[in-house]
Amino acid sequence: MMKKVLFVCTGNTCRSPMAEVIFNSFAEEKKLDWRAESAGVAAVGDRPASPNAIQAIAELGLDLSGHRTRFLPAVDLNEYALFVGMNEEHADILRSVGIPPKLVRVLHRAPNAADPYDLRPDIVDPYGGDLDAYRKCRDDIVGAVKLLIATL
Predict the structure, then answer these.
(1) What is the rounded distance in angstroms from the CA atom of residue 17 to the CA atom of residue 23?
(2) How many angstroms separate the Cα of 150 from the Cα of each of 26, 27, 72, 139, 143?
(3) Stated pTM of the model
(4) Low-confidence residues of the chain: pLDDT under 70
């Protein structure tokens, strides 16, 4: 039986949809019995992913063009075996709506070998940034998802 993970960010237009498609690509490649979906704690329903997120993901050969935003309270949370926030605030919100703490994680960036002084653990929101901000976010998500998958 396929297990499902829900990636959660704020608006569900950038980080969590990118994490969703990246996770699904790796899970399929590794033949894992996991599938990802995404939602936002403040998402306005039925909107596309941001154009820069679509472009950044397309550069990996993945497709985010069909994504539509989902508001967390509209999602049946009983479908998921794991919940992953893009930062601690998202994880706190998940726990506050009754998700058992053992099922909630935060997607932490892999260490930045290029800059040992870059100690930010969370996936930084690129919303409103240029394409390079989205590429940086995408690359952070790729490294973080690889770490996450290694723990499943």
Answers:
(1) 10
(2) 11, 11, 26, 17, 11
(3) 0.94
(4) 113
Mapped onto helix, strand or coil, the DSSP state of residue 147 is: helix
> Looking up tokens 């499902």, which residue turns up?
4
102-145 confidence digits (pLDDT tens): 999 999 987 776 777 777 788 999 999 999 999 999 999 999 99
Q: Which burial class, exposed, middle or buried, applies to 12 when counting CB atoms under 10 A from its CB (0-12, 13-18, 19+)?
A: buried
- C-alpha–C-alpha distance, residues 94 and 61, integer Å: 31
Phi and psi angles of residue 75, each rounded to the nearest 5 degrees, phi first: -100, 140
The whole-angstrom separation of Cα 17 and Cα 107 is 13
Question: Tell me, what's the pLDDT at 1?
Answer: 86
Strand ranges in the chain using DSSP code E only, listed in sequence order: 3-9, 34-40, 82-85, 104-106
Q: What is the pLDDT of residue 113?
A: 66
